[in-house]
Write a structure and sequence with these properties.
The protein has 345 residues and is of the alpha+beta class. Helix content is 26%, strand content 30%. The protein contains 10 helices and 18 strands. A 9-stranded antiparallel sheet has the order 1-7-8-9-2-3-15-14-13. Strands 4-5-6-12-11-18-17-16-10 form a 9-stranded antiparallel sheet, sandwiched between helices. The protein is globular.
Length: 345
């Protein structure tokens, strides 16, 4: 079967598909990037994935839609890439609308894609990891700068536009990693944190990971909630007009929405936020664990609600916004305390 999936055959399957490329790739047992590479010479151009070159070029495109996803959640923000800060291990864009954290080692394959659609030519930048899994996508809009697009194609195109990539095998989710004998150290060190960024360093040093630490540290630092807490969270944030910071991502990119949620539309297993410049699509049926987490910082407790899937992978994190950004920490604390606990009748 795999030998029959030539680039020509993949292009044919894509044309006839009634599902999104992400789902088609899963059905075919391929990486999503392999579907894009089938279009090399037919609208897809292999480009340099280096953040130092790619993000400044994307910034020149003007207003676009930025999309980041994991298996269970997709976040889409409309805006412009601004204030890019490069780094060897981590980079970021700091804009009120497109706010991202990027991890360069996962930005391995990148393509500029042009495809005819019912509403005209659709243009996008699509970035994938070594296994061909989607890391981040940029979709141009009607008002995007086409001169900058053409410049990006000219300047970032790589010499090889025909050879197909040899994608790595997909890494399996790690699941919860717990070190029972270090639970007391975890509690003591957690209580001394002054910044949320210290958390990852702490759990790595103790040979654990995020979910493992939550499962072992105990209340009041981490408390399990019911899976129904997710829909309750979104409904309360909308109804009470809270301003939140919602983090959605994968190993290579985290995209952040800061602000309210206005238009909540459940549809089957999907919980959708359909706001003017912010969309979220969450598979609520993928949520297997939800945690209420309290991390101390110099500016007061950073309280979050975090959801994980059955394999132990993080789906999203939601924090209340800080007071200087228009948030109300006391109201946020009341909201999260009202969410149904795990095992609640």
């Amino acid at each position: 079967m795999m030998n029959d999936l030539t680039p020509a055959r993949l292009r044919e399957l894509k044309r006839d598909a009634t599902v999104r490329p992400y789902d088609l790739a899963a059905q075919l047992g391929l990486s999503e990037a392999a579907l894009v590479e089938a279009e090399l010479g037919f609208g897809a151009t292999r480009i340099d994935p280096a953040l130092s070159r790619l993000i400044p070029a994307v910034q020149k495109l003007g207003e676009v839609m930025a999309l980041t996803r994991n298996r269970s959640c997709v976040i889409e923000k409309i805006g412009t890439y601004n204030e890019f800060h490069d780094g060897e291990h981590a980079a970021m864009t700091l804009d009120t609308e497109i706010d991202m954290r990027m991890f360069p080692r996962h930005w391995v394959h990148a393509y500029a894609v042009e495809a005819a659609g019912a509403d005209g030519m659709r243009r996008s930048i699509q970035v994938f990891d070594a296994a061909g899994g989607a890391v981040h996508k940029v979709h141009l809009r009607a008002g995007s700068n086409l001169e900058a697009w053409n410049e990006l194609l000219r300047d970032l195109a790589l010499p090889d536009q025909a050879g197909l990539s040899d994608f790595d095998a997909r890494t399996l989710p790690e699941g919860a990693r717990i070190a029972e004998d270090r639970a007391d150290i975890l509690r003591a060190e957690w209580a001394k944190m002054t910044d949320t960024h210290q958390f990852n360093t702490l759990v790595r040093r103790l040979k654990m990971n995020r979910l493992g630490a939550y499962r072992i540290v105990g209340a009041p630092l981490a408390m399990p909630l019911s899976v129904e807490a997710v829909s309750a969270l979104f409904e309360k944030v909308r109804a009470e007009q809270h301003k939140v910071m919602l983090f959605v991502g994968n190993a290579g990119c985290i995209e952040i929405h800061s602000g309210p949620i206005r238009n909540l539309k459940p549809m089957g297993p999907w919980l959708n936020v359909l706001d003017d410049r912010f969309n979220l699509h969450l598979r609520a049926d993928h949520v297997a664990e939800v945690w209420l987490v309290d991390k101390p910082t110099r500016r007061g407790p950073a309280i979050s609600v975090e959801a994980f899937d059955q394999a132990g992978s993080l789906i999203f994190q939601c924090f209340g916004m800080r007071p200087e950004k228009g948030g109300d920490p006391e109201a946020w604390a009341r909201l999260v305390q009202s969410l149904p606990a795990a095992g609640a009748a």
